[in-house]
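Fold this sequence, please.
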Amino acid sequence: MKKSLIASIKTGAKAGVSAGLAGVLAMFFVACGDDASKVYNTWNLVSLSNNGANIDISKTQKEAFVTIDKEKFNGNAGCNSFFGSHKIINNQIQSSNTGMMRMLCDPESMAVEDTLIKLFSDSAVDFRLENDSLVLQKKGDEGSEGIKAVFKEKDKGVK
């Protein structure tokens, strides 16, 4: 069943989710100059909000994280694993060939995952590096705050 779910994502049945996830991750990799190499790391999700409302990430079934290298990314969105390819362009991450497992999990995990998927549902996501944090943000409709995810480097004391 897992293979069929991944296949359906790759064939377009879940194209919106796949393209979005790819887009957000692609933006992770769009750092300018030396920032691009600083993005290549494993990042653990430490906070997530949607239009200013914080989403509790402490009760997910699995720790949400993303590992980014020069051309590919993979991680877990709190319940399901995801993967794909990316390019960093103009301080945005452009992703492609994104796939994701799609198993049903507990409501707390799904709330985190559904929000992260919305963040990754567009081909362009703004990112910035702040100290040891990676911040991804997608503005909402009509100027609303949108979705913001903050990740910390895995080796910087985040479990």
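The radius of gyration is 14 Å. Residues 1-32 have pLDDT under 50 and may be disordered.
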